[in-house]
TrEMBL record:
Top-rank taxon: Bacteria
Domain ABC-type glycine betaine transport system substrate-binding: 39-305
Organism: Robbsia betulipollinis
Alphabetical list of Pfam families matching this protein: OpuAC (PF04069)
Name of the featured protein: Glycine betaine ABC transporter substrate-binding protein
Entries under Gene3D superfamilies matching the protein: Osmoprotection protein (prox), domain 2, Periplasmic binding protein-like II
Signal peptide: 1-30
Keywords: Signal
InterPro entries, per the entry: ABC_Gly_betaine_transp_sub-bd
Length: 311
């Protein structure tokens, strides 16, 4: 080796040695706050609630000292495949979605049994379900508050329809998926003893259901319980008093390998989940969908209000 080549060679070795000393020190500092100095990739789906939850999580972990990468705007099946393959570390998933869509379990289970089942099934895939939040983004039947009167439950609605039929037309709006799926409209009507005629059912885009309810174009509509338009459009959710709709509890799901690399992460995400419930999530969604505020700002304001970040 030439003389100047040897010089550069030893300089390169010195640099590597210096870096090898510095890296453990930096890793130790990161470990004090949030585990090893490796990026945590946070995933999210492509609708408002998921964009907010993933932004909240990324900002929260950043404040704790993690190095995060945010990848949201994904479809459900794509997000799931990305986490199973190791491309995403942390996501917020819904218990009912995992049970029915990913694991193809059609048993009618209560909320606790649904959580226990998906937790067990996904453990075999290296995915860990942490503590459930109190967010339940499931289906519901909604009416405009101005016309709901004394109706508070689905049984109340069923009694009203039976009393008025057949002289009154009761328009109920829903998307085509709910109208056609095996666990959708037909078994719901059967369970509550509701007899609807074809002309009583109005299928439309999911977003238009809220508009139709707001404008009084339909009597009732199938909605999602945490959608911001429920609050923003003054809608009354009817209680599912016979517990027909499955639980869709939003829960942090983390790869086991990620938890092994970041020992404090589980407790930190459980602390975050404990701050979230259906009314809180509905209000956050409304700030984005109704008030047109940015997702990043809404997420940041939530974290500050809950004293999960300092600034």
């Amino acid at each position: 080796m030439k003389k100047h080549g040897l010089k550069h060679y030893f300089l390169w070795l010195s640099l590597i040695a210096a870096l090898s000393v510095g890296l453990p020190l930096r890793a130790a500092r990161a470990a004090d706050a949030a585990g090893a100095d490796t990026p945590v990739v946070v995933g999210g789906k492509n609708f408002t609630e998921q964009l907010i939850l993933s932004s909240i999580t990324a900002q929260y972990l950043d404040a704790l000292g993690y190095r995060t990468v945010l990848k949201n705007g994904l479809g459900s099946t794509l997000m799931r495949a990305a986490q199973v393959s190791g491309q995403l570390d942390v996501v917020w998933e819904y218990t009912g979605t995992s049970l029915i869509l990913y694991n193809h379990v059609n048993d009618r289970l209560d909320a606790a049994a649904t959580y226990a089942r998906v937790k067990t099934l996904d453990a075999a895939r290296g995915l860990v379900w942490l503590d459930e939040s109190a967010i339940n983004n499931t289906y519901a039947i909604a009416l405009p508050r101005a016309t709901a009167g004394d109706m508070r439950t689905l049984s109340d609605l069923a009694a009203r329809i039976r009393r008025d039929a057949p002289k009154t037309r009761h328009l109920i709006a829903m998307d085509a998926e709910f109208a056609g799926r095996s666990d959708g409209l037909r078994p719901l009507l059967k369970q509550y003893g509701i007899a609807l005629r074809r002309r009583d059912i109005k299928q439309m885009d999911p977003g238009l259901v809220y508009t139709a309810l707001k404008n009084g174009q339909v009597m009732a509509g199938v909605v999602y319980t945490t959608d911001g338009r429920v609050q923003g459009f003054g809608l009354q959710l009817l209680e599912d008093d016979e517990h027909y709709f499955p639980a869709y509890r939003a829960t942090p799901v983390v790869r086991q390998a990620t938890l092994d690399a970041h020992p404090a992460l589980a407790a930190q995400l459980n602390a975050l989940a404990a701050k979230l419930d259906t009314p809180t999530m509905t209000a956050l969604n409304a700030r984005v969908d109704i008030d047109q505020q940015s997702i990043a700002r809404v997420a940041h304001d939530f974290l500050r209000k809950q004293q999960l970040i300092s600034q």
